[in-house]
Design a protein that fits this description.
The chain contains 2 helices and 4 strands. It is an alpha+beta fold. Strands 1-2 form a two-stranded antiparallel ribbon. Strands 3-4 form a two-stranded antiparallel ribbon.
Length: 76
């Protein structure tokens, strides 16, 4: 499921900024906290990836993660 957002443009004097609001449901599901540092990675003109600068440890055990990856490789 995706979350649709709109880009806002704000001009203050000679400077302009673009803002994207982060949906609260998404932030809560990802356990994002106020002040946490994130960075944008531009894969191409249509794909922007937002990731944590300081990754949180996975809640999935390495063994379970490996099983999931093997299942995904077999999927069509």
């Amino acid at each position: 499921m995706g979350y649709s957002v709109r880009v806002q443009r704000v001009e203050r004097g000679s400077t302009k900024s673009f803002y994207i609001n982060f949906p609260a449901a998404l932030a809560e599901a990802a356990d994002i906290v106020k002040g946490e540092e994130l960075e944008w990675i531009i894969e191409d003109k249509n794909t922007f990836v937002l990731r944590r600068v300081q990754p949180k440890p996975s809640v999935i055990s390495p063994k379970t993660k490996e099983k999931i990856e093997n299942i995904n490789r077999k999927a069509p």
